[in-house]
Amino acid sequence: LTIPVLAFGGILMAVMQTVVVPLLPDLPRLTHSSAGAVSWTVTATLLAGAVLTPVLGRAGDMYGKRRVLTAALGLMTVGSVMCALSSDIAVLITARALQGAAASVVPLSISILRDELPPERRGSAVALMSSTVGIGAALGLPLAALVVQYADWHTMFWLTSALGALGVTAVWWAVRESPVREPGRFDVAGALGLAAGLVCLLLGVSQGGQW
């Protein structure tokens, strides 16, 4: 069950990143905020994902990949619950930043597959895991558009919260903790420096034109 459960987690990650896109034209009205503020519901997720993917990858090597994968899916689910409970733009941006932790799901899952599977099965499993990003995006956009058209927009985040909780439970139940560890000290200063550098770079790329 390891392969389908990890693939489900990858699909969830992509769904979470794309479900907000059909909402963007209506969010300024729904949240009583500006279009610039609403754009941060996407930017915050991308920034958090860029920063947390290498950090959580290193943490997975040191402390256990399944443990860190479960934590990343848990943060994603908490972010969905926050979005489902609030219409405040500051809360939504914070929640979307938490969901950015899910960007580490695919690389962590690929690491688990490399540790757990025999060599003859690794290639196909890694290919499937990589394809989940496209599958999730293809599912997330029409799903979100349907929900936005026919139901309250918070319903979409309640649905993704339920799926996220299912993903966390499935990983904890079906995926064995990888015995492979890379001992060492977690470089807090390096992680903070990496975060600052990536945030400055990506802010300039994503917001420079508008600023």
Note the gap between the termini: 48 Å
H-E string: HHHHHHHHH
Bin the helical content. Answer: over 70%
- Secondary structure class reads mainly alpha
Strand and helix layout:
Blueprint: H1 2-18, H2 27-31, H3 35-63, H4 65-85, H5 89-99, H6 105-116, H7 119-150, H8 153-174, H9 188-207
Helix pairs in contact: 1-6, 1-7, 1-8, 3-4, 3-5, 3-9, 4-5, 4-6, 4-8, 6-7
How does this model look, in words?
- With 211 residues, this protein is mostly helical.
- The longest helix has 32 residues, at 119-150.
- The mean pLDDT is 87.
- Helix content is 80%, strand content 0%.
- It contains nine helices and no strands.
- It is globular, with a radius of gyration of 17 Å.
Task: Tag the structure with descriptive keywords.
single chain, 211 residues, mainly alpha, 9 helices, globular
